[in-house]
Amino acid sequence: MGKNKLKKFAQNETFTHVIQPMNEEVLNADFHLKGKWNEEFGNDNPIVLELACGKGEYSVGMAEIYPDKNFIGMDIKGARIFSGAKEVQEKGLTNVRFIRTKIDFINSFFAKNEISEIWILFADPQIGKPRKRLTSELFLHRYIKVLKPGGLLNLKSDSDDLYDFTKEESIPEFNKSQNGMSFNMRDDTDQLYEVGIKSFDETMQKVLNIRTFYEQMWLEQGKKIKFLSYQFKKGNN
Q: Of 219, 197, 215, 214, whose CA–CA distance to 206 is shortest?
């Protein structure tokens, strides 16, 4: 392991807004902040979760746009999280936390109805491994255990495979299999910057214009950016 990574890991340990539990703490067990994240933030504001947050560009960017919301970025890569964590410290943001862990453990960290919104940004499309995709039915079943009725699930991606899979396969199959629960489409575009972004209000345009490290890389390669947004419906909500 390079010295630079070791240095970042060491600095992560000094950030109070970076949470790095051992696997034993969350493997088939509830993390001590489960159901208590609003207490951790010191307010009752909505909690927005960014999965596979990488360098945390969206968590930081949205936290600046929405000071009345709380943001949590999850990723297993500590060296990536360091970038966002350092920016949070430099900007003095109090409404951001990062968790270094596997997304598989999401239900160990969050309680029923604790999350208002989930963002999945430029996740690995897992070609040939659909079950591992962050919009697969496996993960959707995990999300509904923490997402509030009326909460949002947002996907931004360069991948045609992940976009088509989510829109045409996993969400429709999930909706068929559930009794009174569904993800209802709110927004859909396969050319976000060419035709889609103008349809959103000014604040949401700012959010969608946040560029992650990977998004910038894909844009420079000429790839089209896709966006899907769903609202979680439970019963008559």
A: 197
> Residue 99 forms beta bridges with which residues?
19, 74
> Six-digit token pair at 104?
């598989």
How far is Cα 62 from Cα 50, in angstroms, rounded to an integer? 10
Please provide the CATH number assigned to the domain covering 3-234.
Answer: 3.40.50.150
Residue of 124, 158, 160, 190 marked catalytic: 124
- DSSP state for residue 101 in the 8-state scheme: S
* Of residues 163, 183, 178, 169, the one with CA closest to residue 118: 183
- pTM over 0.90, yes/no: yes
C-alpha to C-alpha distances, 237 to 118, 150, 151, 178, nearest whole angstrom: 18, 7, 10, 15
Tell me what the pLDDT averaged over the chain comes to. Answer: 92
Q: Does residue 9 sit in helix, strand or coil?
A: helix
pLDDT of residue 6: 59
Q: Are strands 181-189 and 226-234 parallel, antiparallel or unpaired?
A: antiparallel
124 annotated active-site: yes
